[in-house]
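fyi for ur records
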Amino acid sequence: MERIPDPFAWLGEEGQWRLFLLSLVLGIVIMVALNDQGRYLQTAEAPDGIVTFELIGSKAGADRILNSWGERGRVVAGLNLGLDYLFMLVYAAGLGLGAVIAGRSHARFSLVRAGFGRILAWASLLAGLLDAIENYALIRVLLGADGDFWPVLSRWCARPKFAIVGVVLAYVLSAPLITRLLARSR
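which gave:
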């Protein structure tokens, strides 16, 4: 696991902390804006707003969602997807840096857990790429693309993206507790 490179090594440890904190603040600001926009996208057909649209997986389902949104909702969805491109850069970097920093905290106890942090940092970047492809597919649907290809592509990108984000968040958020427990057991 030691051979897995840190994708953010070029920043150095201090630079990683600075960019992590900046990503955290920007991520929260953008998330608030996305959630504010997203309330216009919650309908009976899309109870979870844009997330329902991301996961629908069929042209017929996407059309029902788009019809429930109306013209205003389509514009809001387009703005939401545009802002999400900025968010994906911020969260991919923030989660990746969080994983690297958390991995460093585990290094004195377990090289495997430390290496897992670097793997999750790369996975965070993959989540950002999957999100970009997913958004492109959704934009195609918003613009009236025919067939199931684009909604299916969106779902196939969204599912692993959400899974990666969940695993990385769990790793990063549990790191202080696990490090404390490991330090006490020694």
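The radius of gyration is 19 Å. thats all i got for now
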